[in-house]
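Please fill in the sequence for the structure shown.

STRUCTURE ENCODING:
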């Protein structure tokens, strides 16, 4: 059973930074891609950032976080990170780590970590 363990959430003032970590129990190269999603109260879960497990590590970001957030991976630690800078109150949400496989198609989720940005 794949486990994804997130850490790094917390309370920060607007303009501050946080770094989220997602440690996988399997090699991250056993997945096709990994990413971070978030869900604010009363809203749908949305993709924040994703990275492929190809050699190049292609990345994708939501328009709302481009230029402020950066996703990266540590191949040795089997960990994916989300560096969040210039945080805004609207970034407040529960952030979830996701890992996806294509064959067979399956998604794995972490338990979520709360990020709260105060104004």
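FILLED IN BY: designer on duty
SEQUENCE:
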């Amino acid at each position: 059973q794949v486990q994804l363990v997130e850490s790094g959430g917390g309370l920060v003032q607007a303009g501050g930074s946080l770094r989220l970590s997602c440690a996988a129990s399997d090699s991250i190269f056993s997945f096709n891609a990994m990413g971070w999603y978030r869900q604010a109260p009363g809203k749908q879960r949305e993709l924040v950032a994703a990275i492929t497990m190809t050699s190049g590590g292609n990345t994708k970001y939501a328009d709302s976080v481009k230029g402020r957030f950066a996703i990266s991976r540590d191949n040795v630690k089997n960990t994916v990170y989300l560096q969040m800078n210039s945080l805004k109150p609207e970034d407040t949400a529960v952030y979830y780590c996701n890992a996806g496989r294509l064959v067979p198609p399956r998604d794995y989720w972490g338990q979520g970590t709360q990020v709260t940005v105060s104004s």
